[in-house]
Amino acid sequence: MLAQQMLNGLIVGATYALFALGFTLMFGVLRVINLTYGVYFSAGALIALAFTRNIAPTLWLALPAAALATGLLAVLLDALLLTRLRRAQAPELASLMVTLGATLLLYAVMTAALGTEIRRFPPGLAGTAIEAGGLRISGTQMLILITTFIMVGGLLYLLRRTRLGLAIRALAENPGAAQMMGVDAGRVVAFVSFASGALGGTAGVLIGLNYNAIQPYMGEAMMLKGFAVIIIGGLGDIGGALVAGLLLGVLEVLTAGYLASTLKDAVGFVLLVLTLWLRPDGLFGRSTIRRA
Amino acid sequence: MIDDFLWTYQSLIDTIGINGLLALSLYIVLAIGQLSLGQAAFMGIGAYGSALLTSRLGWPFPLALAAAAALPAVAALLIGRPTSRLSGVYLALATIGFGEVLRVFYVNADFTGGALGLSGIPERAGFLWIYGTLATALGALTLLCRTRIGRAMDAMRQDEIAASVMGIDLARYKLGALVVSAALAGLAGAFNAHSSTSIAPGEFGFDAAVTILSFALLGGIGSPFGPVLGAVILTTLPELLRPLHDFRLVMNGLIIVLAVLFMPRGLLAWRIGRAR
Hints:
Number of helices of chain B: 13
Strand content of chain A: under 5%
Largest sheet of chain A: 2 strands, antiparallel
Radius of gyration of chain B: 18 Å
Order of helices and strands of chain A: HHHHEEHHHHHHH
Shape of chain A: globular
Oligomer: heterodimer
Strand order of the largest sheet of chain B: 1-2
Strand order of the largest sheet of chain A: 1-2
Radius of gyration of chain A: 19 Å
Strand content of chain B: under 5%
């Protein structure tokens, strides 16, 4: 029973980690808390839903299509909302506010267009459950594990082993120096936006499948988990976000199982406040240097 | 004649005053260059707290008002304390999270009436209470602008590091501003509950928090009057132009985007002249 709960928790946590990864990547490289991120989550689920219903009922096409579309959406929104502020080197809070306004606008437009009723994926998309050693793992859960593994692995490979990854890390470290060394900042910004949008959209499809309840505002509730995970892991820390995501998933499932299911949604916030009190730079954080 | 007018538009007039108070509560935080997205949540604590005290325990309204200011202030202390030494982003994220958690709590807890909320709250907050508080707060903040504290707040907004070099205790000001602003938002919540006589969790969520920000950004934060004017405009317009009513949230969101990108000083760009 405990083992099954732990497994379920880890799988929920994997989606949190995947979701938070794009969010923290955006902050780490672009120095922006981009609140439109929750919109990519909702959009990903809605696009995959439309795809499986109207074009082809197969996730192997719907998932990449949703990721591609949300990635492009992220590039577009970043260019529209943040280019101007980036050029003016506006403070972090200005960009947070712009994306906040855009988020309200986008949710309101999505709700006006689609309504708030809950939509569901056609049944039998993700294959059948497997049982082994008393543990049961559903087709959706398998899909979540595999996708998370591939996307996290791909991202880490890209950041650590490729020239583009080097350019991204250089830009995150010191934008001025990186540009002097010939890093094309515009291209890197666009790529990072694309990658985070795709991560957010993918997480939306996977969680949409897992709970099978899709509506425009689903991204808003998810953002709370996103904040908790990126602050617990340390803002901009990719490894931290992975660990914090898994931790949050497991603790939520255990709380729902052994305490009360209504307390589940408070777990993230309690951890967030504890982190701010005890380790404000995140689980693995070094103390930040105050820049003048 | 004037009585008729007041009677017909009473709820709108009350709402304008309450929204003015909320905009002012956010102004206190924005004035030092911080961002709180917890104003709706603090308002909710004030609304639920005072409504439970008057309708269930029979407390007199003034006493419930005091509680409506004190409870959110304590909550602000708990969230603000650890974030006051960190960059402003942490406060913004922690306060959004706080609002979301409270909303879930109101929906699930029994004594807050679940998703339906509370109704049958005694109607105690009239024109005088609301506008008296608004005028007092507005007056106090305008006077504050001219004092040492007001100048310190100005300095912090313009350049935090320079301000701290001049000997301003940043953490203390950040925490103080958040606590005062939470208390003011709590009062607004109590007025809201005791003027509309019913409250529900949805009124204190993310949309409400962002709407309060749109008041402040439309009016501009050059003086305390800006946010209040923003609240008056954004509360009245959807009532006058019915089609705007359905696109309220779109409009509020758009105002924030345009204000930050193109008119960072807001609609009321003037500043109050101050003694040098």
